[in-house]
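Lab notebook, bench 4. Still working through the backlog of constructs that have no structural model yet. Next entry is a single chain of 123 residues. Request: give me the structure tokens for it.
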Amino acid sequence: VQLQASGGGLVQSGGSLRLSCAASGRRFSSNGMGWFRQAPGKEREFVAAINWSGGSTYYADSVKGRFTISRDNAKNTMYLQMNSLKPEDTAVYYCAAANGGSYYSMLYAYNYWGQGTLVTVSS
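Model written out:
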């Protein structure tokens, strides 16, 4: 089972990026999924989560209104559209899949993790 995060890169403040998380080895169409991030010297923090169908989403206050999480169960892939990026969004972004079907902000709810993709926002 593998989650492969991609789409990170260097972008200027105010710019946009779209992250993807492709799953292989099993289907996650019944599982909640989420994005987390970890900046240098800081703990991993919740960014956004989505339930199994994509009908319910949840965001950290710091990204609400700027980021949009979505999923395509037919492609076994989750996305994170990031707009109006700020230097404080700089971090390694990780995708994760939970055992349950709802959306979760807690790290311990997630059993499968991708390897991370680096997002750097310059001022």
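Notes after review: Residues 37 and 93 are 4 Å apart (CA to CA). The two ends are 37 Å apart (CA to CA). Flag for follow-up if needed.
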